Amino acid sequence: MVKVSVILPVYNVAPYLEETFESLIHQSLSDFEIIAVNDGSTDHSEEIIKKYQQLDARVIFFSQNNQGQSAARNLALRHARGKYIYMMDSDDVISNPDALQICYDYAEKNQADFIFFDGESFSEAKKHRTSWNTKRTHLVEENTRYDGNYLLNLMLDTQAHNCVVWLLFIRRDFIKRIGLGFHDGIIHEDELFTTILTLSSDNIFCLRQNLVGHRIRTASTMGINFSKRNLNCYLTVADQLLHFSKAPIIHKFLRYTLSKVFYTGHLIPFKQKAAVFWRALTSGYLKYIGLKSTLVFWFKRH
Question: Which of 38, 72, 30, 63 is nearest to 165 (CA)?
Answer without folding.
Answer: 72
